Amino acid sequence: MKTAFLRYLCGVLLCLASSAWAQEGSVSGAVLQAPGQQPLEGVKVSAQSPVLPVPRGAVTDARGHFALTALPAGRYTLRFEKESFQSVIRTDVRVEAGQALALKVELVSVGTGAVSTAPAHAFSPLAPLAPPQRWESDGVAWMASARSGDIRDRAPPWVLPQESSPSPSVANSLMLAPGSKLLRDLDPRGFGVNPTIDTEEERISTYPLRVSTASYVLTKGYLARDTLPPEESVRVEDFVNSFDLGEPGELVGPFKLHVEGYPSPSRKGYHFVRVSLHSLEDFSDVGMQVEFDRRVVARYRLVGYEQTSATPEPLDDDAEPEAVPMKAGASVTAIYEVKLIGPGISFATARVLYEVGENTSWRRAYKYLPSSTLRSSSARAAPESRLAFVAAAFAEKLRGSHWTRSLDWARLHALWQDIGAPLTGRPDVVELGALIKKAGSLDQRKDREGSLSNLDPDASPVPGK
Where are the residues of the annotated region Disordered (predicted)? Predict the structure, then answer.
């Protein structure tokens, strides 16, 4: 009796397994280097599809082979990426039930200058970024819409105090980065510093692709007169974008995107991440959005890019929103701090919204930001990324940011020395080192929040201090 029942049970399970297998397929193949057709080991292969609850991944072996098995039938997007090679995306890959799909993929080294024949992204008409543009300026993300009242009425209690505006004589010496325009029209009001945001509350970060060197020039003028600049006049994005960080990166539509990060020297448990966008053409309007994967990133902070206009004026009925142009050859860099909570092939997705000329439809390009770009140490990162961190940390120190309390001036100067050759021999980088030393010698400010002994890198600033 028991034997008959067991046979019946095994038969049922076998039928169920066969039925499940019949609804699945597989994708396998080889990844080769072009030209030369040499197998590529260590290529990360990821598969995404509406039929998958989470992306699936594999890594090529010494023969360049990979295999993705037990894939539910459906349409997939496959991504092939390896450091120093242009990524390849295969869209609309159809996996049939009970069938094995074989692919051959070629990756081109970034150094060869060749262009992949596979589509790198999808373009389509698009309305303004969805969800609508948001800014991280007052403790939570909020919609960019007209509001009444001063920014001080909306800021959290721990933002930096407001101070006097910079002198007109210094303001007259401002300079713009190529292809950019002045931000905030030298609005001297302080907007505090951006908060750390939990991705469960808001996973999308948006920032404008227009910057100037204004704040950095102001700071140099103040330090030349042996005076620290007013805290609210310091803009992190202006400091970072005052330096040429090179033009490496992967093609993303008519742009190049470079992403790199490493463990933050100033905030334990977080990674510093640099996102640099380089334009290959002239555009009448450009916007940038980074969407973090909640399964990989627990929290993030956009460093700089605080509210660009404290009280936006409502537009007239016949008025048009101001465009944010970006000229060919222009580059814009943003800095993030991110806290990782789990492994993943990619930790975020970058989307670029752009418009060419007048009366044209919006287009967008996107790129998954691979976790492989997050290095294990700063020594493994490019010197340009280390320079970006030092420039950002310098600005944060000058503005008295809560998030750099654990980084003293001596340590910051040591990090400047660690940028390494050939950058530390470049005149503008040499000047940065001298400015850091000068600011450190002038800084007599007391810590508003007391002892650093129990500093929690996840905790918000203490209200009222």
Answer: 443-465
